[in-house]
């Protein structure tokens, strides 16, 4: 497959304008201006060192940056999440602590788009054919008998009662208090988890008043619960506690 492009370059940046596929920029130094819709892959010592959406923390002088500017038919936040999952499959340990649901049709579009970008990303040092590493990530099993157990959360000012009623359904009860402001990165901007949390709150805006739930809210995962209530930042399986003080992790982890 051949993709035509135009572009320009300087001693610090190479630009690839891919027309209807967006743009890719390769930076030898950290860019000073970052678009909030841009996806950055950070390369250090010829290895993938990180991935960021809409912001960049301070990186060392020997870091390189690959910026993906998606076309109009691609939702940047969704493609960023899709890309983190693809990198995870390739064996990179990115510590992605949030979950999103992306429509099957969108996944097909994003996968086709990524396949078109891969030759250029490979040239920039981003490789997706590493062997999958064995993971020590804990797995949890839904237990029907826990459906009536009121799990409590008390973290960073957020307090809530949560029920795990179905495998992919959590109920956050009315009266829950939400952390007011999304945390900022070192660069002074809202990171991806914060943006995702704000997006969840927008979807349930009618059920929130003054950072308090006035109606029950249905969410799809433990990570969504944590991101919705306090913008993630911790392992939420350890924050949900039964009346006896046991964490949801203790009660459901597969050993």
Automatic annotation (TrEMBL):
Protein name per the record: Uncharacterized protein
Organism: Companilactobacillus zhachilii
């Amino acid at each position: 497959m051949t993709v035509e492009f135009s572009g320009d370059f300087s001693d610090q940046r190479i630009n690839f304008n891919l027309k209807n596929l967006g743009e890719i920029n390769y930076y030898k130094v950290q860019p000073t201006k970052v678009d909030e819709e841009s996806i950055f892959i950070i390369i250090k010592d010829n290895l993938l060192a990180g991935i960021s959406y809409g912001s960049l923390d301070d990186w060392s002088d020997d870091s390189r940056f690959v910026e993906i500017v998606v076309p109009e038919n691609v939702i940047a936040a969704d493609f960023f999440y899709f890309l983190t999952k693809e990198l995870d499959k390739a064996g990179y340990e990115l510590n992605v602590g949030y979950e999103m649901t992306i429509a099957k049709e969108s996944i097909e579009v994003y996968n086709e788009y990524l396949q078109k970008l891969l030759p250029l990303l490979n040239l920039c040092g981003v490789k997706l054919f590493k062997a999958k590493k064995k993971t020590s990530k804990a797995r949890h099993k839904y237990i029907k008998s826990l459906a009536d157990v009121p799990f409590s959360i008390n973290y960073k000012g957020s307090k809530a009662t949560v029920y795990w009623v179905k495998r992919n359904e959590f109920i956050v009860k009315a009266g829950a208090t939400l952390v007011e402001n999304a945390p900022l990165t070192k660069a002074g901007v809202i990171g991806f988890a914060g943006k995702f949390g704000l997006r969840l709150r927008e979807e349930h805006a009618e059920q929130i008043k003054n950072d308090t739930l006035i109606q029950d809210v249905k969410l799809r995962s433990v990570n969504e619960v944590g991101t919705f209530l306090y913008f993630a930042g911790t392992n939420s399986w350890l924050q949900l506690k039964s009346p006896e003080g046991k964490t949801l992790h203790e009660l459901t982890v597969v050993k």
